[in-house]
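user: At home tonight, take the chain set out below, taking as long as you need, and be ready to discuss the fold:
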Amino acid sequence: MKHYRIWRINLGWQILIGLVLGIILGVIFYGNQTATMAMQNIGTMFISLIQMIVLPIVVSCLIVGIANMGDIGKLGRVGGKTLIYFEVMTTVAIILGLIVGNIFHPGDYINVHQLHGQNISQYVETAKSAKHSGLWSIFMGIIPTNIFKSLSAGDMLPIIFFSVFFGLGTAALGKKGIIILDFFRAVSEVMFKVTNWVMKAAPIGVCALIGATVAQMGINALAPLSYFILLAYMTMAIFIIVVMGLVAKMFKLNIWHLLHVIKDEMVLAFSTASSEAVLPKIIDKMDKFGVNQGIVSFVVPTGYTFNLDGSAIYQSLAALFLAQAYGIHLSIGQQVTLAVVLMITSKGMAGVPGASFVVLLATVSSIGVPMQGLTFIAGIDRLVDMGRTVVNVAGNSLAAVIIGKSEKEFDEEKSQKYLASIRASK
């Protein structure tokens, strides 16, 4: 029995062990292209498994949740609240990054001529095309001309748009729509079961992804930029504990309770640097935590485009860091302009690979930073990405609870029971 207990460690600890083993393997195989490629391929396979289940869960849960909500007026109210909340939190995150950058001046300690740049050509064209897209293209892109094309491309906003209308249409059918609801409810249950199976491979996927990152970069590459990395993580911690903590307190929620519920998902998000890796479990847990399923299914996927708080912190802090490194003084007016540009640009590029880095490419030229300046932080982007992904996940989880509470669609009793069950399972 004792041996059985030893091996029944929870998923969070398994992922942490995978993280440590990955770092060790990365150090051992540093510079070994064959081993690095093998680890990268294994990690990519795990991320692909996650991507395989994300869209069926989002579509099925959203259709069922919206159909149960049934009221287009209520949906409009929830949508309005959600977007306002996202915009306020993202703005606060950008401002926080600028404040920390102005206080600690991370760029003053860097000699750009001694840093070795990384190749960023893969992001340049994306940034150029996205930079000129504008707000109208963002709004027009929400409406899918072909839902199957949107599903194959993984475009979240058009998928949400279609699912919302499909759910409302199903609710309008009355009794005839019950068979459709039963089908999608069964689909969501099947996909959550598949999610549990996929999560068993998470420690292996984490080990491979971290191992490949360390093997490519090497530990020595971190030294010149370690102060910026530490400052970025400190700022993200302040945002979660102070900013999110205060917002949670305003709605009579203990932020530590929420973080306790999603801690395994935060560890997984940190290890994989992928928000998608935890999307199915976050939807499931917020539902179990007491938030109405319709609100969870709408708020969390929408947040993956509009509520990237960790990315907002990184973008503003990195932009200021690069300006300081090049000796460019930014006035208050220029920093306000930078914040506005980041707010708009980030919404238009949320769905592209390496979105945070692409946003920086599209905006730093407006403050006089040379394009090659970003090559200096390209190497450590993955490491900071791990931290900002955690903030994004925590921010979207909190958003679901806040919107649920504002709509009086949060079950306090269910929340306490679920929290107690998590504590008991430890």
The radius of gyration is 22 Å. The CA atoms of residues 351 and 394 lie 19 Å apart. Confidence is low (pLDDT under 50) at residues 1-7, 122-128.
